[in-house]
Design a protein that fits this description.
Elements lengths: L1 E3 L17 E7 L3 E7 L2 E8 L3 H5 L12 E13 L2 E11 L3 E7 L2 E2 L18
Antiparallel strand pairs: 1-4, 1-6, 2-3, 2-5, 3-4, 5-6, 6-7, 7-8
Length: 126
């Protein structure tokens, strides 16, 4: 998973890319964007080179609105070149489940079981 973004070259943000678990916001419609809002500065980057099927097994889609996914997140980056970063860690927050790990150390984590299923509750009747 690659993030393409240009961080401003200023004193407030010069060390941002070196931090772990940077607060951000993930939103996906026709583009996968990561948004940072730090020190009254909004910076938007676009994610590429990700496996959508694996990603969708690890996050919850939302109904309605402009975005399929629109969640508070934490991200750790590793610089590849100027304006290009590999996503090392990505965590997504859900009020029902707390922080959920999508990627750790560059690898997709085991998908979480967000909802009950019939196998866990044999008496369930839809």
């Amino acid at each position: 998973m690659i993030l393409q973004i240009e961080f401003p070259d200023n004193l407030f943000l010069s060390k941002l890319e070196q931090q772990k678990k940077i607060p951000c916001h993930m939103q996906i419609s026709n583009k996968f964007e990561i948004i940072f809002e730090i020190e009254s500065t909004r910076i938007i980057g676009e994610v590429s080179e990700y496996n959508r099927a694996l990603f969708e097994q690890r996050v919850i889609a939302r109904a309605g609105g402009n975005y399929i996914y629109n969640e508070p997140s934490l991200i750790t980056l590793s610089r590849v070149s100027k304006g290009v970063y590999r996503v090392v860690d990505l965590f997504v927050f859900y009020s029902d489940f707390g922080w959920c790990s999508v990627i750790e150390n560059g690898d997709y984590m085991e998908p979480l079981q967000f909802w009950d299923n019939d196998d866990e509750d044999p008496d369930f009747k839809p």
